[in-house]
Amino acid sequence: MSTPHGHTTTGPSPSPTRGDSTSEDPDSTSAADDGGNPLDCLDVDPEALLDYANQPVPDYIVHDNTGDNPITDQGATLGRVLFYDVALSVDDSISCASCHQQQYAFSDLPEQSEGVAGLTHRHSMRLVNIRFGEDPTVRWDESATTLEPQTTRPIKDATEMGYSGTDGSPGMNDLIAKMEGLPYYPALFTLAFGDAAITEERMQLALAQFVRSIQSFDSRYDEGRSQVDDDLTDFPNFSLVENAGKRLFIEDFTHEPDQITIEGEGTFDASRRTSGGLNCGSCHRPPEFDIDPESLNNGFLLNLDDPLAQDFSVTRSPSLHDMMNPDAVFNGGMFHTGRANEMAGLSGHYNFRPFDPGNTNLDDRMLPGGLPQWLNISPTEQVQLAAFLETLTGTAVYTDPRWSDPFVCR
């Protein structure tokens, strides 16, 4: 069903009882009031919940930022419904899943996603394997200290989902009152927490459990990594090109001072790579491919809200798992802008970028020897790197019912 914002809704058509009513009269009795099943409009069976809590995790995965909110089948089930429910936006048009879509590894194709009152400030980050990172902070600028408080920020954002409580807009108390009138939420909160009380904190716990449950470890990389003792060893299931790309990704490089001339821009001092790999893995660390908590800005400074300004605050990235789908097509553009949607744009940024003296947050790894890196990537190396990154793509995450839309009344 199309919404006023051009999205396909991920929940049932807005109505006083969200699809459970037998009449269009807002005063009519809901299915729950009639003694019917309050979960009739959901693909949820409380007696046979999907398995979120006991998913297998490979032995070589060592990072886990779950903290004191362990995943339960009940909590993640509630989180799944919250994630896909357009009722969590002020005009019943936007859900979390509108901007984080399963078919794109829980990202979005546009550079900026549509909210109820405009566009998001940055590209929608992929959510796959967000649990398996050492750094518990989230958002491109790490402004949310853990996943839990982040989960309701889009709901409370005036642009994204609209329950901001500012400038006359409804706030979280209004949303909670709305949710209390939907027959499925008292039942689901009772299932997850033992009673029907709906609070923002409980919403955060359940949403975080669901998001952390979204994992992808069925890629060709994972198949190969399970057969060796470390990442540098050639994987037996990889081609020569893929193993070469893996070494490029992981290994550091030697460099020497030089100058690079860019047509139309000028000549710049640089540290030219003379041998070795590309050192991608020092920030995007295998086998989780999480971002090093000490990583700073990568020199990509475009500000989507103001082309005349610069965005120095971006220091975070999603896991590199499932950057591309099984057809080797990018799941939305890379970086916080979503502007790089092919390998040439991705490697082009890191190949060389002149130093901006205003960027006091630039990661030192972008300045080997104190000069901007010039990786001098050859066409062959670009093919090898792309071949390796394609091995990070799984298949189940795109179709697994655990992470699919649970609403069946539309």
Pick out its properties:
11 helices; single chain; 410 residues; two-stranded antiparallel ribbon; alpha+beta
What this model shows, in words?
With 410 residues, the protein is of the alpha+beta class. 23% of the residues lie in helices and 8% in strands. It is built from eleven helices and seven strands. It has helices at 73-84, 96-99, 147-151, 153-156, 172-180, 184-193, 200-213, 220-225, 240-250, 343-351, 379-390; strands at 114-115, 118-119, 253-262, 266-276, 284-285, 290-291, 373-374. The strands form three sheets. Strands 3-4-7 form a three-stranded mixed beta sheet, with no helix packed on it. Strands 1-2 form a two-stranded antiparallel ribbon. It starts with 72 loop residues before the first helix and ends in a 20-residue tail after the last helix. The model is unreliable at 1-32 (pLDDT under 50).
Q: Fraction of residues in helices?
A: 10-25%
Q: Please state the average pLDDT score.
A: 91
Strand order of the largest sheet: 3-4-7
Task: Give a count of the beta strands, DSSP E runs of length 2 or more.
Answer: 7
Give the percentage of residues in beta strands: 5-15%
- The helix/strand class is alpha+beta
Low-pLDDT segments, ≥5 res = 1-32
First and last CA, distance: 8 Å
Shape: globular
Note the run of SSEs as H and E.
HHEEHHHHHHHEEEEHEH
Treating each run of at least 4 consecutive H or I residues as one helix, how many helices?
11
**Computed CA radius of gyration, to the nearest angstrom:** 23 Å
Layout of SSEs?
Layout: H1 73-84, H2 96-99, E1 114-115, E2 118-119, H3 147-151, H4 153-156, H5 172-180, H6 184-193, H7 200-213, H8 220-225, H9 240-250, E3 253-262, E4 266-276, E5 284-285, E6 290-291, H10 343-351, E7 373-374, H11 379-390
Parallel strand pairs: 4-7
Antiparallel strand pairs: 1-2, 3-4, 5-6
